Amino acid sequence: MSSVAQKQSFGSWLWDWLTTVDHKKIGILYLLGGGFFFVLGGIEAMIIRVQLLTPNNDLISAGLFNEIITMHGTTMIFLAAMPILFGFMNAIMPLQIGARDVAFPFLNSLGLWMFVFGGLFLNLSWFMGGAPDAGWTSYASLAMASEGHGTDFYAIGLQIAGGGSLIAGINFLVTIINMRAPGMTYMRMPLFTWTTFVASAMILFAFPPLTVGLFLLTFDRMFGGNFFDPAMGGNTIIWEHIFWIFGHPEVYILILPAFGIFSEIFSMFSRKRLFGYSAMVFATVLIGFLGFMVWAHHMFTVGLGPTANAIFSVATMAIAVPTGVKIFNWLLTMWGGSIRMTTPMLYALGFIPTFLMGGVTGVMLGTAPLDYQLHDTYFVVAHFHYVIVGGTVLGILAGVHLYWPKMFGVMLNETLGKITFWFFLIGFHMTFLIQHWLGFWGMPRRVFTYMDGQGWHLSNVISTVGAFLMAIGIIILIYNIIAATIKNVPVANDPWGDGRSLEWAIQSPPLYYNFTQTPLVRGLDTVWLEKQEGNASGLTPAVPVQAIHMPHGSIIPLLMTIGMFVAGFGAMYRTETAWGLPVLVLGLLWTFIAMGVRSLKDDLGYYVPKEEILNDIKRERGRN
Q1: What's the pLDDT tens digit per position in 185-238?
Q2: What angle do CA 30, 31, 33 make, to 5 degrees?
Q3: What does DSSP assign to residue 542?
Q4: Is the peptide bond prior to 306 cis by the omega test (within 30 degrees of 0)?
Q5: Which single residue of 55, 119, 129, 494 could bond 452 by disulfide (Cβ 3.0 to 4.6 Å)?
Q6: What are 607's strand-pairing partners?
Q7: Do residues 62 and 373 make contact, with C-beta atoms less than 8 angstroms apart?
Q8: Distance set, CA 557 to CA 17, 565, 589 (Å)
Q9: In whole angstroms, what is the distance from residue 262 CA to residue 272 CA?
Q10: The pTM is what?
Q11: CA distance 282 to 479
């Protein structure tokens, strides 16, 4: 295999992407898949806002509104935000630690295809009798009463996609623990790698409860398991505990990688080492730990009692402390720095006050007496979106602009990037700031219309106009991506000129084996350190040039996932149609046979010859 780009037929190009186990290509596929679902979830959000634009609106029915609001939340959390972050983790984290690939390339591919087919399975519900309609949390009292197969699509689709997330989390953990370059101690890892590490550890402990809950819900719906039916001795509140034991750590699984992206941005574009690096690391770990201690603050109104409510209120206050440490350290990183107002830096600056507002309203909702008044109002909608959109989505958009040249070898237009930023930020605050007041004024969330004369009309108009501004910003971003791809102007190894970590010392996009020689890490911000000492390449090799072992691609992950996908339909229709049970058996057999082929196949990978590596080194020196 040559690192020089060769002309490929469409068939070989498609086969290459379907069978890839290269972490960089898998990162791109996560980014593309998550981007597709992000746009889909955004369209659903726009329908919600247009429906609420005027009182007594009959644009869509109450039943369809419930389906759209359920699918919007489910899509944005499980199929957009997480996969896009997985894309960055895949594409950037191994480069930051000096690794050739992730620890388990085959499983990495399997996790990707499980996300893709889980999302496809969930969204096929639109065309097969109706989408889930019990809310993105799918509380058992609503889910059990839901007619049709919408909730079944939810439970089975998320089990497939969630299994892929669990695989990815385990893979990232093992990669960071075992595959760091010589000299890359834990306290020399970039903050994005640290946040990937902690978020992956949270995935390891948070996703099994969700998997168990979805399994029990599936058994209740399909086999009369009665886990959540009070009339048969079950308990609907148990679902809430199971869901939020996953659901609140999930918030930090989403926000921590965004924190990591912003930490890289503040340091790069202030041209300073991150202030209080050790404190930032320990704050990240503490957030990961405390994230599991606060789940019942979503449940203050279910009757847990004053003692439990008080404990979870205190825990909610406590988790604000390490987050505050991070905010002060970001501000002090900029203090006295030589700040460059790039597009990523604009997103970082907009993020601090925006996320701070979400944190403050979170502490407010963590106070049980106030939560009693604001529960299930638009105040909660506003808080949640200030955290997830004002934190995670701003981080994703910052990461797209920051890492696009490294991942694709072309630079997004900075002027268009800044236009996108202002449209999105202004639109965001217009959309969600006013919703705090709507909550105070008593507007319940999840209602598909409202009567005139309640004082909510103007606020909903403002909110809807803001949503359109956000949509315009995303459309400009998509145009920016298309235009940059068509122009295809190559960029340097460090197109920003201020790179501090290993990914900025290799070519853009990287070679398929990442590093011609394994790097020696000599300190924190190792590339910056090397450049300050006059090493223009930014890398000191740890080993001489030698052949590099790489894994073969494989179609088996895709085949295994197709089997799970088919089995899901068989499970839903096993008694309703003559083909249900045979399809279930066929899908499971297909998956196990593909798995067996993998286990029998003696795949030891291949070696990149030393001569090819030497040629790549000469070519890179010629480019520089």
Answers
A1: 999 999 999 999 999 999 999 999 999 999 999 999 888 888 998 888 889 999
A2: 65
A3: S
A4: no
A5: 55
A6: 549
A7: no
A8: 12, 12, 15
A9: 14
A10: 0.95
A11: 40
